[in-house]
Structure formats: structure tokens, C-alpha cells
Write a structure and sequence with these properties.
This protein is α+β, with helices and mostly antiparallel strands. It has five helices and 13 strands. The strands form two sheets. Strands 1-4-11-6-7-9-8 form a seven-stranded mixed β-sheet, with helices on both faces. Strands 2, 3, 5, 10, 12 and 13 form a six-stranded antiparallel β-sheet that branches.
Amino acid sequence: MNLRSTRGLTRLAAQLPASSTVPATITSSFARSVLASACLAAGLLLTGCAAQKTGPSPEAIARQARLDQALALFSGNQAGGLPSGWEPLLFTRKKKPTEYQLVEQDGRIVLHARADQASSGLRHPVDIDVNKKPWLSWSWKAAGLIPTADMRYRETEDSPVRIVLAFDGDHDKLSLMDTILFDTAKLLTGHEMPYATLMYVWENQAPVGTVIANTRTGRIQMQVVESGPASVGQWKHYQRNVAEDYERIFGEKPGRLIGVGVLTDTDNTLQKMDAWYGDIRLMREPAENS
């Protein structure tokens, strides 16, 4: 058992009455259901475009190029296979994985996701101070909505597209139950859960701006940035100030961003879904003409 596991059990022993015991089991499915939302590691209205101004300086262009290297762009690859720098994240061997592959569409290279009663993601490790580089931009397209999905409930928490951000932080601040959950999840799956996970999602009914907490832990929060069927089959582009979103949702400034992921999942609803992701970019300033 690792140091964090020992710490969690010590805190449990210290805080429970002598006659109390830890709840009988925290089952494998319990931890896996959280990891399906968390290991890849969410709001009011979408951020507006920046005012028109002169083009970026050579220094700004160079800084952005370094950020694009830190988070490898899909468009920098050829069609076929997985993008360089991105790695699959399988939540459990018992779950069917979502299929990801680079394809050419509309004259550019994008990432295609196909989920058939499946759940797995792609993730890219990073080490970014989002307080200095707070902006995130991306595009996605979904072939449809998942008919029975409702992210408010554990049994139907699927989404055609998700952007997943994992943050570091002080694990000593975690509640007792979150500490136990995090430690148990790692023991059962081998994945270290991040201190906090912020997702941007497409929901069937919840209005844009809604924040949905994971049913297991408040350390995973989902920000609805698209809702309903109006934009199905269309490329949609987004920009978010991640630092502001995080502070508003979690009530504290974000730690370092340690992972960026995508997730298309239909394992709870047993449906099929095709979706596409364009480049995901970290930026110091919002892009113009978005």
C-alpha cells in the first residue's frame, strides 16, 4: 500500500468513533465508474470573441508555437493511427474501448471517435500554469445525441463529446471520503486520480452554463457548453478561460494543468456514437475572429 493509501486509512481511523467501521465495501464498479469520468484527468455562457486588433507579434507567435508543442495538435499528424503525444486511457479491461483514429475531413486532419457501447479516452500529459496561460480553444462535431443520456445520473452519464482537463493540487485538502475514493480507485485500476477534473461536455437537455457534479465526488465537475440537437452534424468552435471557470466552479485557484483528454462514451446507455475533434490549443490570449 502506498503512502497516500496509508494516509487515507489513518485519517479514517482518527475521525471515526471507536465503535464505527468503514462501510463494508467500496466496490470495483464504484471506483471504475468514477475513473471513467476522472482519469483523463465544466460556467456560464460561452466566452465571446476578442475585439479586433493588430496581428500578433513574432514573440507572441513563438510563444504560441511552444504551447502547441506542449499539447500536440491533431493537425500536425497524417491520417491513420493515433496522434503523436496522445495515449489511450483504458478504464478497465472489462469495458469495450472507444475507437480513435486520425482522419482527413474538410481539408484538415481531425480525430475521429467511434463508441459502440464503449468507454475509453485519449489523453496528453502536460505541465502548464493555466493562471498564466488560461485560454483553451477547441472544435468538435457530433453525429447525433445519445438518446437516453442524462449526465445528472450515474446510470446514464454518457456524452458524445467531452474535453477533459486534469489538475494537480494539495491532496491533503481532500475530504475523508474523497481520500478513500482516490486511494481505492488507484488500488483497483492502477490510475492516479487528479486532484480535480474539469470537463466541457455536450448535454441532451441541461442548458448551456449548467455545472453538473459527478455523482460520486465533487472533485469532478462537468460544464455544459453545448445542449440539445440544434448543432448536431456541425463543427462547433469554443474558447474558454479555464482559470476563471475552475475558480468559479471549485472555489479556489487552479493548480497546474497536468493532462488534457478527449472522451466519447456510450457504455452506460449501450448506444453507438460517432464524433470528431479538431485541434485543442492552450493560449495566453483568446484567439481573434472565433
